[in-house]
Design brief:
Layout (H helix, E strand, L loop, with lengths): L1 E5 L7 H9 L2 E4 L13 E5 L5 E5 L23 H13 L5 H12 L6 H15 L6 E3 L9 H11 L4 E4 L3 H4 L2 H6 L3 E4 L18 H8 L3 H5 L2
Parallel strand pairs: 1-2, 1-6, 2-5, 6-7
Antiparallel strand pairs: 3-4
Helix pairs in contact: 2-3, 3-4
Organism: Nitratidesulfovibrio liaohensis
Protein name: WbqC family protein
InterPro entries: WbqC
Length: 225
């Protein structure tokens, strides 16, 4: 059983789904602290003019240093959906696969969400369907695993029956490898380079949305899924 764990990012990049495709079980780490200026409520696209820009979900950050990801609320006092949708529409409405995906995207973006986790999961499911990914997902908050840092990751993997854990490449810089050895769980490190693909304006490492709008059904193969 190969398990990998990742925080539930917003509009994830292609490496998020490449790692998912390598695993038998994917755990979304929703019970750790939310970080500002990270990828949990924003990601990058490219404008019609070829400029990189962020699309962002505004969140309530008061008390965020003691708030886990699943409890972060969207700041709906800001009328963010019009601006958010306008950026995506302006960037991609002339792309070949806009009509294939835009209706479902619009439905997701304009739904009345309260919590950030809900729109992130809706977007992740959207991409999973578009990429034909069937790896089972589990929320870490639905498990009984406890601990911090490496201890938490090991306990999640043990609860899922893992024999192997796929870590992000930075894991080798902070994980306590002895804990993995003690649990008899092999660790491998994810290696991935964002693919080069035909696009109106190519910028490396954008949200998976850019690959979909440019390549449609060929996106999965281009990512290496």
């Amino acid at each position: 059983m190969i398990v990998t764990i990742h925080q539930p990012e917003h509009l994830p990049w292609s490496g998020f789904f490449h790692k998912m495709a390598l695993a038998d079980h994917y755990v979304l780490l929703d019970n750790v602290q939310f970080k500002t200026s990270n990828w949990q409520n924003r990601n990058r696209i490219v404008t019609r003019e070829g400029q990189e820009c962020f699309v962002t979900i505004p969140v309530i950050t008061k008390g965020h240093t003691s708030t886990v990801i699943r409890d972060i609320r969207i700041n709906n006092t800001e009328k963010w959906q019009k601006k958010y949708w306008g950026r995506i529409q302006g960037a991609y409405c002339k792309h070949l696969y806009w009509n294939e995906y835009s209706e479902e995207l619009a439905h997701i973006i304009h739904a009345p969400y309260v919590f950030l986790i809900d729109i992130n999961l809706a977007m992740i499911d959207f991409f999973r369907k578009a990429l034909s990914l069937n790896t089972p997902l589990t929320m870490a908050s639905d498990l009984h695993a406890t601990g911090k840092s490496t201890e938490l990751l090991v306990n999640i993997c043990k609860e899922c029956g893992a024999s192997e854990y796929i870590s992000g490449p930075d894991g080798k810089n902070y994980m306590n490898m002895q804990l993995w050895s003690d649990a008899a769980i092999n660790v491998s490190f994810h290696t991935f380079s964002p693919p080069r693909y035909e696009a109106r304006h190519y910028i490396q490492g954008l949200s998976t949305l850019d690959i979909l709008m440019n390549l449609g059904p060929q996106a999965a193969r281009t990512i290496g899924i």
